[in-house]
Design brief:
The structure is a homodimer. Chain A has about 375 residues and is α+β, with helices and mostly antiparallel strands. Chain A has two domains: about 150 residues, 3-Layer(aba) Sandwich (Creatine Amidinohydrolase, Chain A, domain 1); about 230 residues, Alpha-Beta Complex (Creatine Amidinohydrolase). Chain A is about 35% helix and about 20% strand. Chain A is elongated and about 70 Å long. Chains A and B meet through helix 3, helix 5, helix 8 and strand 7 of A and helix 3, helix 5, helix 8 and strand 7 of B.
């Protein structure tokens, strides 16, 4: 399947039907969407305009009937081009009442069976609006319980459609091709910012729409963390450099990292590289329908523990992936989500070694009927060399 | 002043001292930070890792004493490199208790004078954590009122230091130089995505760290909205194209747009272009210490109304700018914030015309002792031509 932009109407109708069916199971009269990835998922609407925190936007999905957009006037022409036809606006910004009374009215008019409205209140969710205004809407809706809709939303989003998988696969191909082109464009003496700019330019050439995440960090003989950087540090012989990438195509992310050796690395790093590479193999081999993220984590940990590892500090060994860089579930003990075809996961073992150093690998897979399929071009067993 | 990366320790100490002084005025025992721009402002800590919604991070600023970071273990090496020295961690993700009991303990131990703790609860603010967990912390802190710290935070962030202004100016120069290079790189027949990719590549070459916002939209004879796009539409002769840009240098944004004519545009568009250009001039002329954002809006509206305009639908005519694409205040009737030296504003008049078309201009200025200084290279009076 080729990754086209956007989705057919039938895709949104199917998402809405699944949401409505789940609302009955979970005893919710409606759910309210405020967060950009959920807006994109249910309405097919995306705007970078949400980079501005000034105005909240609401999408109400009732248990029966059509979605209702409650939005700032500025958004009307854009929403009118989506499949959402019931659009109510207010002239935001309007500091004294930015959507509060408009939302209180829509929720009061919503047919009531259970007296419960779901919001994005739980795990890995944020309500994109001032909490003082959320409290005001909650107070205005006396007699209605505000419940957590996050489990319902994540249940839907966790299993990707073929059209969604095609977009993630395209993002992964863009990332893989850009990584492959990178070693020849880098050299000793570049600083981490120059590395990041070089990689950004290559990703843009390869067709990335946006690059919301790019960590670049290097250290002599190895790196000690993976979430801060790039910094002004220059690459030197003997460095190990880590790059982690979250780039999008049509809103869908790839999320995978690569390690680079500046010249020769020491034996301990080389040995650790091989262990983590084999742990990744074990994680990929374990990914199949019926397995759990806890199983995947155990498969990876087992390889590293057999080799004498005492663990890494990143807290989990991969996660779901889609409209966000990370999504549920998490590859860690205790996550007993049952994997099924269509789920997209990162396989991300990490290992501490030496004197405060760490090494992290990552690939992206989609669960299939009988196992999984690699979406990224598998990292070479030995690190790429620079210079 | 040249824009260096990062800030001196004294800059953070000054921010903390101002925050603590404001806490006394506003009767708060501490404020709690969760949002990335506020983390960056007070701790000097930035990570794209927050693109992942899985883990909350907390920074507690007590009314006296040092800041306290309450964070996932994965963040410790990064925070240890900042000026924040009191670091408490928990091994996130930990779904059953992701920071809730850790935060309840820190807040219970916080010296209590007023019995009030400030959170990012109000205007143009979002608390970056699950609201169900926020409710749990609130319930666990009986006897402590959770109050809105947003006015305090925005009061501090609204007036930029010379070092902050230098970074915004550099972002504006990167954006200005990239815009100037663009017309020669575009041609009829490119689609909006190709335009966006070309501009992204040029911005990256010019030194942009990230490009969180780039709207590209074109229409025959004019465009009808400014927040959705790029799309797959091809540029054709007679089109007017709008690009709006939010690019960063060291975390600080520029935010300004430009209009492009594909060949010749009609008389009405040409006439409107001149009106909006003159409205921008009036906005820049009005920007000085002692004026209010309402005054700036009135100056711009006056030029457009004199020319027969009936208004635009974007709700305001510019806004503050800094660590976020848009910040308070807003150029609109009712915003009586008194402008003072160091505030950075966008001057952004927009006007409806013809059959559902609109035209929007934008420049960035910093308020000085005796007026304002343009940070962007002023747009030409006539639109840039393509092809």
């Amino acid at each position: 399947m080729t990754a086209a932009r956007g989705f057919e109407l039938s895709e949104f109708e199917a998402r809405m039907a699944r949401a409505q069916s789940e609302m009955t199971v979970r005893r919710l009269d409606a759910i309210v969407i405020t967060a950009p990835p959920n807006w994109r998922y249910f309405a097919g609407f995306a705007t970078q305009f949400w980079e501005s925190p000034t105005r909240p936007w609401f999408l109400v999905l009732p248990r029966a009937g059509e979605p209702i957009a409650v939005i700032p006037t500025i958004g009307e022409p854009g929403i009118a081009k989506t499949w959402v036809k019931d659009i109510r606006t207010w002239p935001a910004p309007q500091p004294e009442d930015d959507g509060v009374s408009a939302m209180a009215k829509v929720l009061a008019d919503c047919p009531r069976t259970y007296g419960r409205i779901g919001w994005e209140m739980g795990r890995e969710s944020v309500i994109r609006m001032p909490i003082a205004d959320f409290d005001r809407i909650r107070a205005a809706c006396s007699g209605i319980e505000f419940a957590d809709a996050s489990p319902l939303i994540w249940r839907l989003r966790m299993v990707k459609s073929p059209a969604e998988i095609a977009k993630i696969e395209r993002a992964c191909r863009i990332g893989s091709d850009a990584y492959a082109a990178l070693p020849g464009q880098l050299s000793d003496g570049m600083n981490e910012h120059e590395v990041a700019r070089t990689f950004r330019a290559e990703l843009t050439r390869q067709g990335a729409d946006a690059i919301p995440f790019m960590a670049v960090t290097a250290g002599a003989g190895g790196y000690d963390q993976i979430i801060v950087g790039p910094n002004d540090r220059n690459l030197s012989p003997g460095d190990v450099m880590f790059i982690d990438l979250g780039a999008t195509f049509d809103g869908y992310f790839c999320d995978f990292d690569r390690n680079f050796a500046c010249g020769d690395v020491d034996d301990e790093t080389r040995k650790t590289q091989d262990i983590v590479w084999r742990a990744t193999e074990a994680g990929i081999a374990a990914a199949c329908p019926g397995a759990t993220p806890a199983d995947l984590a155990a498969a990876m940990v087992s390889v590293m523990a057999d080799a004498g590892a005492t663990g890494g500090n990143v807290g989990r060994l991969g996660h779901g992936l889609g409209l966000q860089l990370t999504e549920p579930p998490s590859n860690m003990a205790g996550d007993e989500t049952v994997l099924e075809p269509g789920m997209v996961m990162t396989i991300e073992p990490g290992m501490d070694y030496g004197d405060g150093k760490m090494l992290v690998h990552e690939e992206n897979v989609v669960i299939t009927e009988d196992g999984c399929r690699l979406l990224t071009t598998r990292a070479p067993r030995e690190m790429w060399k620079i210079g």
